[in-house]
Amino acid sequence: MTRNIPKIFAALLLLSLCVLLPCLTGAERIPPGKNPFSLLMKTKAPISAVAVQKIHPHDSDAFTQGLIVMDGVLCESTGLLGRSTLACKDIDTGKVLRQIQLPPEFFGEGIALLKGRIYQVTWQNENALVYDAASLREIRRMKYSGEGWGLTSDGKSLLMSDGSSIITIRDPKSFQVQRRIRVQDGDRPVSRLNELEFVRGEIWANIYMEDLIARISPQTGRVKGWIDLSALRSYLPANARVDVLNGIAFDAKQNRIWVTGKYWPHLFEIQITP
Questions:
Q1: Where do the structural domains in the chain lie, given as residue ranges?
Q2: pTM of the predicted protein model
Q3: Which tens digits make up the pLDDT trace of 53-99?
Q4: What residues are paired with 67 via a beta bridge?
Q5: Exposed, middle or buried, 63 (CB in 10 Å: 0-12/13-18/19+)?
Q6: What 3-state class would DSSP assign to 8?
Q7: Is the CB of residue 144 less than 8 Å from the CB of residue 128?
Q8: Parallel, antiparallel or unpaired: strands 212-216 and 223-228
Q9: Could you please report the per-residue DSSP string of 61-102?
Q10: Rounded distance, CA 232 to CA 184, Å?
Q11: Range 7-273: architecture per CATH
Q12: b/e map of 114-138 (b: 16 or more CB within 10 Å)?
C-alpha cells in the first residue's frame, strides 16, 4: 500500500538502492535469497519455493489488499481513497459477481470471513466494516485505534496486522483486543506484516515490499518458515505495471492456495515445495 514516506527520503533511498543494486522495472525483481537486504539472508527457518498449478485472470487495476475464498468464490478487498471496493468474483474468469464501493473517505484494507460475516479493516480510518457475506450488505462498523493492514480469522477470533511486527487478536463482536503476539525470526522481530491468511493452523503473512510469505505460529509468534514467491514474477509480462506481492487466499475444504499482487494481471494457484 502507499505509505506516508517523505518524498525526499524516498528519493534518496531509491538512489542509494540503485547504487548498490541494479534498478529494476516492470516484473523484474531480485530474488529474496540473493538480495543483501532480504530477511532470508540471516534466517535459520526453512525456506520453501512454490509450484504454479493454475494461472487465472486478475484485474490489473485492482490495488489488492485482501483475499478470501468463500464457497468457491474469490472475494477481494482493494484500496486507495475513492476507489476502495469489496468484490466477489469467479476464480476461473475473474468476472465480478457482486461488488460494493466503500465510502470515498475510506481506504480499504484486509478482509476476513467468520460465521457468515466478512470483516474489512481500513488503513487510517480506524473503522472495521462488517458485511453479510452472501449479499455484501453492510451490517455495522466497529472502531479501533491505529492503522489496519491485514486481517484473517482462526475460526474464533480476528487477527490483524498494522505494518509492524505485532499481530493483534481481536474479539469479532466488539473488535476489542484479546491479546497480541510479536512476530520474530529467532531473536529478530519481523516487521512490515501485511495481508494475512490462516492456513493449516499457521498465520501466513505477506511481507510488504518483499516477495515473501512468513509462516507464523499463532501461539508464540515464531516464524516457522518462509515461502519464496519471487519465481512468480517470471510469469508476469516484462512491461507490466505491477506493484508489490499482496493477497493470500486458502480454501480449507479443497486444500487450495491462491496468491496475487497489487495491479498483477494474474491470480496464481500454487503448491508449496520443499
A1: 7-273
A2: 0.86
A3: 999 999 999 999 999 999 999 999 999 999 999 999 999 999 999 99
A4: 76
A5: buried
A6: helix
A7: yes
A8: antiparallel
A9: T--EEEEEEETTEEEEEE-STTT-EEEEE-TTT--EEEEEEP
A10: 26
A11: Beta Barrel (2.40)
A12: beeebbbbbbebebbbbbebeebeb
